[in-house]
UniProtKB/TrEMBL annotation:
It is an enzyme of class 3 (hydrolase). Belongs to the glycosyl hydrolase 1 family. This is Beta-glucosidase. One of its GO terms (cellular component) is cytosol. It catalyses: Hydrolysis of terminal, non-reducing beta-D-glucosyl residues with release of beta-D-glucose. PANTHER family: GLYCOSYL HYDROLASE, LP05116P. Keywords: Carbohydrate metabolism, Cellulose degradation, Glycosidase, Hydrolase, Polysaccharide degradation. Substrate binds at Q23, H124, N168, Y300, W419, E426, W427. InterPro entries: GH, GH_1_N_CS, Glyco_hydro_1, Glyco_hydro_1_AS, Glyco_hydro_1_beta-glucosidase. One of its GO terms (molecular function) is beta-glucosidase activity. GO terms for biological process: cellulose catabolic process. It comes from the Bacteria.
């Protein structure tokens, strides 16, 4: 590999890798698992590219020992994985499924035997279908069901798992799932998206309180997908207001209630025509702002936005106008000459530094972790079977430096989880997008460490970038 300027992180900095249950596990109907909203969504014609589903995915359910061995080979110190709610509590209520819990017990034991810290995400988008049929996240009762589930999972694994995050990216669950409908469950109703947002946060707060009461030593947090936001023209009042609106919907509408115990007043005013926030009851915001031990930040790109322009068409997929309630007329812009990933997301490593420093400066102190950061590229398999994913190597290197810059600027960043350990089911994109440091041949399930994985091994070995 090319020579680079060396970089060393603080002692004890945590280097990890991350995955999500529906994206890798497979075994969709085995050992008592029942359907989630993503099973239903992916089996609905036209919802995913190629009709792809997570029925088999990476077959991690049967191959977890092989995958843990890969983590050990890469020098991974922590593994962030999610629990499939319908695997451990079919239907989302009632008794727990012993066979489902036993899978995660085996996984945790395997990790600990390899000196890898298990880091559990309790919800990564796979709501039991029965709870969706009862109203889903727009229904307040779902928050209570989640807290009950969380306590029972902690009771089963809490003797060996210290680090817990409640939700992964509630923005996606709420706005992509219930406003734009490009993610499961595929509903398109902005008021439902806002109610879902609140009840996801409420479920987070209730789960934190309940787990902390049972285990005061548990390390508890939530993972938010945050973005650097820029106006297309900093001198344009319209563009500045567009940036304010999107920052409100992408960042502050989650950061403020979780860390400050309030919703931003300007965002509530922006959304007044859609919702009166009547779903907020007395005591909810106090519950949502339950003290945290960590905040997970998923970072992928920057949003550059501008004022409405009737001659500029809306952006597709996750930037669809309906993903941004109350800001459907904002333009999302591409900057000429800025490289993009295979997801068409701009590569903007300085935005990661900006995001981390912003959270550190504007909110109460809390330990920060990058719980996802990575890039999809159209990898090429060489004749010898190797994958020289130089673009991904460069992406990672730039973002490692951005993390280091943030620490130097005072951000309390304590760890980094690469997304993703494995190529996997990329939601509505099916198997057309590859994020992994390890290639998965879906026909044979063969794993191959890519050049980015070899680079990551060097990073974990040296606690930074060696020259």
């Amino acid at each position: 590999m090319t020579s680079i300027d060396p970089l060393t992180f603080p002692p004890g900095f945590l280097w990890g890798a991350a995955t999500a249950s529906y994206q890798i596990e497979g075994a969709a109907t085995e050992d008592g698992r029942t359907p989630s909203i993503w099973d239903t969504f992916s089996h609905t014609p036209g919802k995913t590219l190629g009709g792809d589903t997570g029925d088999v995915a990476c077959d991690h359910y049967h191959r977890y020992r092989e995958d843990v061995a890969l983590m050990k080979d890469l020098g991974v110190g922590a593994y962030r994985f999610s629990i499939a709610w319908p695997r451990v509590q079919p239907g989302g209520s009632g008794p727990m499924n012993a066979q489902g819990l036993d899978f995660y017990r085996r996984l945790v034991d395997e990790l600990l035997e390899h000196d890898i810290l298990p880091w559990v995400t309790l919800y990564h988008w796979d709501l039991p279908q029965e709870l969706e049929d009862a109203g889903g996240w727009p229904n307040r009762d779902t928050a209570a069901r989640f807290a009950e589930y969380a306590v029972q999972v902690h009771a089963a694994l809490g003797d060996r798992v210290r680090n817990w995050t409640t939700f992964n990216e509630p923005w996606c669950s709420a706005f992509l799932g219930y406003a734009s409908g490009v993610h499961a469950p595929g509903r398109q109703h902005a008021p439902d998206g806002l109610a879902a947002m609140h009840h996801l946060l409420l479920g987070h707060g209730e789960a934190v309180r309940a787990i902390r009461a049972a285990d005061p030593e548990a390390k508890l947090g939530i993972t938010l997908n945050l973005y650097a936001i820029s106006p297309a023209d900093p001198a344009s009042p319209g563009d500045l207001d567009a940036a304010r609106r999107i920052d409100g919907l992408a960042n502050r509408i989650f950061l403020d209630p979780v860390l400050l115990g309030r919703y931003p007043e300007d965002v509530r005013q922006d959304l007044a025509g859609i919702s009166d926030f009547g779903f907020v009851r007395d005591g909810d915001l106090e519950t949502i702002a339950a003290p945290l031990d960590l905040l997970g930040i998923n970072y992928y790109s920057r949003h550059v936005v501008g004022a409405p322009d009737p001659d500029v068409p809306a952006e597709p997929y996750w930037r669809a106008p309906t993903s941004w309630p109350g800001s459907e007329d904002v333009r999302f812009l591409k900057r000429p000459g800025v490289p993009v990933t295979d997801m068409d997301w701009e590569v903007d490593a300085p935005g990661l530094t900006e995001t981390l420093v912003r959270v550190a400066k504007e909110y109460p102190p809390v330990p920060l972790y990058i719980t996802e950061n990575g890039a999809a590229y159209a990898d090429t398999v060489e004749p010898d079977g190797s994958v020289d994913d130089a673009d991904r190597v460069a992406y990672f290197d730039a973002h490692f430096r951005a993390c280091h810059d943030a620490i130097a600027a005072g951000a309390p960043l304590h760890g980094y989880f690469a997304w993703s350990l494995l190529d996997n089911f990329e939601w509505a994109w099916g198997y057309t997008k590859r994020f992994g440091m390890v290639r998965v041949d879906y026909a044979t399930q063969q794993r191959t460490i890519k050049a980015s994985g070899h680079r990551y091994r060097e990073v974990t070995k040296h606690n930074g970038l060696a020259g």
